[in-house]
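Hi R.,

Here's the chain you asked about this morning:
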Amino acid sequence: MLKTFITSFKLKNTYRTNSIIYSLKQLPIIKRILPNSLYKNKGLKIFASVISILWEIINIFIGKIIYIATMIFMALSWYDTNQADTFIHLFVFLTLAGGVLNTYMLNPTKDKYYAIILMNIDARKYGLSNYYYQLIKLIVGFLPFTILFGMMLGVPVWIQIALPFFALAIKLIVMNYCIYDFKKTNKASNENLPTKFVWGLVAVCLLLAYGLPAINITITSTIFLYAFIIAIILGIVSLVKIHSYKDYRRMYKQILTESNVYMQEKAKGTQAMKDTSLKQIELDRNYTSNKSGFAYFHDLFVKRHKKILTTAVKKQSVVILLIVIAMIIGIQMNSDFKVKTNEILMVYLPYFVFIMYCINRSSSVTTAMFMNCDHSMLTYRIYRTPKVILGIFKERLKTLITINLLPAVLIGGGLALLLYLSGGTDNPINYIIQFVSIIAMSIFFSVHYLVMYYLLQPYNVSTEMKSSTYKLVQGLTYIICWYMIQIQMPIFTFGISTILFCIAYCLISLFIAYKYAPKTFKLRV
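And here is the predicted structure, written out as tokens:
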């Protein structure tokens, strides 16, 4: 089994190395310097291999600290409960949700597909060796941070050490159940395609995680001790059954199909998404428009694709509305919650940069625009002329801003209302600034993603993403937005700064797009 794991690790590292070299070849300026014979260069391959291994090591820790810091540690400020108990409580229920969603073994990745299906490596040895490796990474990645945050919060030392092993046990129990279910139904679970039942369990876990502390109910050390003992016993039993199971090849044959591997990993620009999109397109021939020129063309596109463009936004708006209503009820019923809400709203406006980033639909909408329009239209020379590109760009910008405006209005209005009901502010202009800054963030992301799409158009005719620069800008956008979570600043100061920045950025970006989009908006090879 060790030999199989070493082979699989070399295979994965080779794939990553080639991906790094390919990404370097896609970067502006650098791609002109690097020769086409790059993949034969031993020195560069060694360099890329080192980067790949370093990333593997960093990846063990970086995801875990971000997870604990954002999902658990920062959430502690919302509650007046004992912080140590609340930390344990959140970790337990979020672990249950994560255990159901992410089994490790049932994730249809390319390296599994290459090894088991194409290279015919023993499925059991490959699956188990890599599964155990992921479990070891889980322990190694979590342990330093459960100890670090646990010490800061006064969590008992034995619990600090036990929490990663509790997560390990949950992973084993869920995987054992998946094998049991496969033997019973002959249908393998694909963790990239969770069922409604799985999503329901996750929703319940999240509700219990964040809802119970709001009413002063948390898991205490004693309760965790009993839960930990039960989980460890069931985990050991599950480990024995997982290790003794023989028919992994049959299970992997169901999961590791070309459609599952490629369509799930790419996530964008795949035939699966095309098929899904086509089902949502309304081909009613009665659709018409009183507009003309580029506006007419775009208006028909929006009407025929309104399900793709607006369904998620409508669902977001309903959820936002329910959260605001729940917050209003909490403020009215609990005076401590009311005071805490007011304190948070006065200084946590920067946090909503990340929230607006997460809910903004511009990235998905531009992908839909390419898949259902541009990937065909860009093959025509007339569609690539400056007049056409800029004409449609203006119409699309209006649409994107409008689509993202509804949840933004609900969030901005909801925050202003909650601020007022929770005790208000000495400066009434804060209500206006809070509302306008949220709208400004929404418009910023609408402009940002559309300009990025037109300047860096990342897809080829097969709707595969080929631009490393596009991915780099996406990554930087995420990092900056995530960093904003850690900032606390008064509404007036941050709000005014945000509004001015958004206005300046939008004006500069639109100027650059108008100047360069006619040259950059084309199909990649």
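One quick note: DSSP finds 21 helices and no strands in the chain.

Cheers,
M.
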